[in-house]
Amino acid sequence: MKEYYSIGEFSKMYNISVDILRHYDKIEILKPSLKKDNGYRYYTKDQIWTLNNIRSLREMGVSLNIIKDFLKNRNLQTTMNIIDYQLNIINNELENILKLKNNLILKKEKLNFLKKEIIFDVPFLKFIPTRNIIKIKGNIKKEEDIDFQIKSLSSNTLFQDNFLFTEEERGVTLTLDSFLKGQYNIYSETFITTNNLSKSNGILKENLFLVLFFKGNYSNINNSYNIIKNFINTNNLNITGDIYEFFHIDIHATINPEEYITEIQVPIKKGTK
Do residues 69 and 172 share a domain? Predict the structure, then answer.
């Protein structure tokens, strides 16, 4: 049997790329047993255990720096330590996967509800408790501007950018002044609801809301706001603050704007003006 194997032979024997072996040499985690003056690298069979350890730990997601320290100082205790370290990572990943699973179940239930149960352009009153949000101010007029701002906000959420498969709700704020002036396409802020209090920088206060679901392209939302204004006047209601729009189904879920579903929430109180 050969004593030395070239880097090419070694890479084929253990199904690992030559570039990775060169990188391992560079960072001194697996140096060749022999390196000739011409730069050729040669390995021996007694380096198999090192490569096996590296590959096993890498498959578990252990960083090269930790592997390097482990190989230099390996003993029974350091082996136990690296197992505990990896178990902790796996437990965290399982927790996140379980959260994502629950979010997917809730999201599917919500989409089925929106698809089958909602009556559109029919206002109704609903008390909604306080919601924590992550928000960003801005004079927003275009859909792409809203998406851009929500993208910046999503870095603070558990499932970054995963607009389609999470239960976190995205929305915009329409000021009361804009509402009264009929300027329904100028928003003062974007927000994402969150259960992470440490990330939250605002709230939507609990209140009695006039709620209306609108279906279709946002350019046709004026009619829904006219319905809301008529309902408020007819039922002797007072608006107590800014208006919120929630994008339940939008471009992330469908290419067809006619399938978009937006929920408008107007904080109100009953009584004489």
Answer: no
H or E stretch including 267? strand 261-270
150 Cβ contact partners less than 8 Å away, ≥ 6 residues apart: 163, 170, 190, 192
Whether 244 and 125 map to the same domain: the answer is yes
Q: Rounded to whole angstroms, how far apart are CA atoms 219 and 90?
A: 47
The whole-angstrom separation of Cα 114 and Cα 213 is: 9
Helix (H) or strand (E) holding 143: helix 143-154
Which residue has tokens 């929630």?
Answer: 246
Long-range contacts (CB closer than 8 Å, 24 or more residues apart) made by 34-43: 34/4, 40/6, 40/7, 41/6, 41/7, 42/4, 42/5, 42/6, 42/7, 43/4, 43/5, 43/7, 43/10
Spatial contact of 131 and 191, defined as CB atoms under 8 Å apart: no
DSSP state of 46: G
pTM beyond 0.85: the answer is no
Is there a single domain that holds both residue 166 and residue 190?
A: yes
| Residues 126, 210 share a domain | yes
CA distances from 211 to 150, 224, 244, 273 (A): 23, 11, 10, 20
3-state secondary structure of 137: strand
Distance of CA 5 to the CA centre of its chain: 47
- Tens of pLDDT, residue by residue over 130-181, are 999 988 887 776 565 666 666 666 555 544 445 555 667 888 999 999 999 9
Number of separate domains in the chain: 3
For residues 34 and 2, give the distance between their C-alpha atoms in angstroms, rounded to a whole number.
Answer: 14
| C-alpha 186, offset from chain centre | 26
Pairing of strands 237-239, 202-204: unpaired
